[in-house]
Amino acid sequence: MTDTPEAHAGAILRLRNVETYYGPIRAVRGVSLDVRTGTIVTVLGANGAGKTTILKTISGIMDPQKGAVHFRERPIQGLDPALIVKLGVSHVPEGRQVFPLLSVADNLKLGAYLRSDAVHVAKDLALVYDYFPRLQDRAGQLAGQLSGGEQQMLALGRALMARPALLLLDEPSLGLSPLLVKEIFAIIRRINAEQGTTILLVEQNANMALKVAHYGYVLEVGRIVFEGPSEELLANDDIREFYLGQKQQGARGRRRWKKRKVWR
Amino acid sequence: MERVFAALWRLLVAAALLGFVAPPVLAALGLVSGADLVNYLQQVVSGAALGCVYALVALGIVLIYKATETINFAQGELMMLGAFLCFTFVAILGLPFWAGALLGIGACAVLGMATDRIVVRPVVGQPAFAIVMVTLGFGFVARSLASVIPGWGTDTHTIVTPFANQIVALGPVVISQDHAAIIVATALLCGLLYLFFTHTKLGLAMQAASQNQLAAYYMGIPVKTVFTMIWGVSAGVAAIAGLMLAPIAFVHTQMGMIIFKAFPAAVLGGFGSIPGAIVGGLVIGIVEALAGFYLPEGFKDVAAYVVLLVVLLLKPEGIFGHVRKKKV
Questions:
Q1: Are A53 and A62 in contact (CB under 8 A)?
Q2: CB–CB of B222 and A82 under 8 A?
Q3: What residues does each domain of chain A span?
Q4: CATH class of A10-97+165-256
Q5: In Å, how far is B220's CA from the nearest CA of chain A?
Q6: Residue B214 to chain A, least CA–CA distance (Å)
């Protein structure tokens, strides 16, 4: 498998010139990106760069004004969210969003809401409990009483219950301790490797995201300004400085604090 | 101040419970005559029966409120229409009682779903007051429409139930089968609803959609359809309430006014709590019956509000409410 961006043939998801608005505000300003089947792709960016909006546009919660979203060569922009879930796209929203007054088990059951093959659903439940043994321990507990990390695990497990081909993860590290972040990312990597699930990961924790991802995009104020394989991004001086917080030594690094570089 | 109120609240609950169980105890000790005790118990039972009807109307309001954050001021009118629909099938068309009742309840559920789609849905997202006015307006329109439908009109009607004019004797306490049926049916309905909401996929989806609408969308739950179905369930419950109220209070176009008892019941229990709505309805029904029997004329009608005011003063979130108080 080559990681060249030109190899679009194996892309499970393609965005072409997508523009999405919040009322009059253009949050996504013509984004094109490819997610190759079986890979983990990350979109990095600061607050308000439009990362979440891109995910919401893919999962049908928001409709793009312009552009196209293709999932498995099929245009899905503007479709009903339920239909997109059915096609194989699961979205783990920012801030977990579990059903607080339902038990952990019921939350997981609802993840498989659109599936009717009880045998396979039961198998997937066992699989989720295998990935997150802590959820099995707390199966009867109300989801609202779980800790932040457990809720994130529940949100991930709930999305897996739909047996998605593409998993959209919005800031899975949000508000978690460094140790838990490590744990969650290890599981994300395992899901990708063992289930073959393609993952589109949106993160502010660029360091962690680039460590698990194969390919990365950098988003600034609604536009993709940089893309490349993760190793390339990790090695890039600008990315290191602005997203990884690693200051360069020497005169160049000292000069930079005044004039922040933008790609516009 | 808050601690004083909390203490007073506990005192009130204790006094109410004590007052409630005192007569049988006093009778057992021979301090109250047997006839007085029988009177008391009969008032409690008939109050509880009426309270069940309040509870079911309140339950419908709470179901819709929890899911859609819409307060349906037309819930009483849905009950009225449900009662008239049952009346149509049973009395006008002459179907057997159970078949007619089921058809009436089903028809009312469909009517509730249509109300959501046609009347309420277009104003969702507008200021809350717009929705209040739409449901209030729908109630008025429903009332006048019912009065011009042939066979319905402004007269009072009855639905003859299989329980009419029969009694159940629990020892010396004699209650009409109509009252007993209401209490049994409400208990059964609550049990069924509980099983439906906790053990079926659709019921769980309804809970999910009311707890976190956005997350429900992410799961692929068709939230709008689910909300429409909640209106259907709510209207069906209202029709059952109407059907149960018919033998004790007649079917007429003004029976929707029961909402002025159902709202206090819902608020008393803690608005948004389903067990609260049931308990609130029972408390108001029983207090009303006892006030009507033991207190001078006029107290019966205000009893519900006196209880409500006292409870809200001491425990503003209601009996089962969870809402944290604002400090300022």
A1: yes
A2: yes
A3: 10-97+165-256
A4: alpha beta
A5: 4
A6: 8
